[in-house]
């Protein structure tokens, strides 16, 4: 995405964008396009892109790659391509529920990562959803624990899993409903990803749910901690996931011009390839059975 001077952003420019400074793609009189994004996603996106040309970005694997980073990168690439004179400001919001409330209030124009369709419907205020980037039943996750938690790693049956202490966010409706449906005896409710990771790493909880990363051993490195998956098991979360825009002038423009471009990527298979490259659709776990009897597409 070019800067106002017409050059491609440096790593420093991207890190400033991750910190909330505007990332500019040309002059725009109506103000910046406000893209809501969790802080860790903004930072990892900056590290993922580095000094590469955003418009030339075609591969979504490598260091710092994961589902939400790929979604943000694709959104920003299509904004730069279809709305080339748009100024983008990444608005850091760590709470999933607050992101939805800010969208409903029109204080942000578009979501930078996908949310569950049921959560958009529950807002009670019309929003402008993108086509489904992840179809119903396609969101398959791993169950992650600390490397020294041998009890969790030995949980190979549903009965054994139910005795473990899970941690999640009740605002993440699909995750929460899925854990409740499994009959987990203990589910700790926290509000940020960082709190989840630290709860498992420090032994206050046994497992959390996370997409499989594109790492050789499927280990999850987050918040300075390393977590490992329960081998041979996955969990399918029900529901479709969408980006969404607010009915602000900038949001409507994104819905009219950018969302159809993303829909074309879904239809062509390019979106699925990006999810495969970042590790979200992971061929190494495609044969692992889902505990809730769903299989990976």
Write a brief structural summary.
The chain has 297 residues and is an alpha+beta fold. It has helices spanning 11-18, 39-49, 67-82, 96-105, 117-121, 150-153, 158-162, 173-182, 193-201, 249-268, 270-277; strands spanning 22-24, 33-37, 87-92, 110-111, 115-116, 128-129, 139-145, 165-168, 186-189, 208-210, 220-222, 225-229, 235-237, 241-242, 244-245. A hairpin with a 2-residue loop joins strand 11 and strand 12.
What does the average pLDDT come to?
87
What level of helicity do the residues show?
Answer: 25-40%
State the end-to-end CA separation.
33 Å
Beta strand count? 15
| CATH class term of the largest domain | Alpha Beta
General form: globular
List SSEs in N-to-C order. Answer: HEEHHEHEEHEEHHEHEHEEEEEEHH
Oligomeric composition of the shown chains: single chain
CATH architecture of the largest domain: 3-Layer(aba) Sandwich
**What structural class should be given to the helix and strand makeup?**
alpha+beta
Description:
This protein is α+β, with helices and mostly antiparallel strands and 297 residues long. It has 2 domains: 11-133 and 240-285, D-Maltodextrin-Binding Protein, domain 2; 139-237, D-Maltodextrin-Binding Protein, domain 2 (3-Layer(aba) Sandwich), CATH 3.40.190.10. The chain contains 11 helices and 15 strands. It has helices spanning 11-18, 39-49, 67-82, 96-105, 117-121, 150-153, 158-162, 173-182, 193-201, 249-268, 270-277, and strands at 22-24, 33-37, 87-92, 110-111, 115-116, 128-129, 139-145, 165-168, 186-189, 208-210, 220-222, 225-229, 235-237, 241-242, 244-245. Strands 7, 10, 11, 12 and 13 form a 5-stranded antiparallel sheet that branches. Strands 1-3-2-4 form a 4-stranded mixed sheet. A two-stranded antiparallel sheet has the order 5-14. Helix 3 (67-82) crosses helix 10 (249-268). The longest helix is centred in the C-terminal third of the chain and has 20 residues, at 249-268. The radius of gyration is 19 Å and the shape is globular.
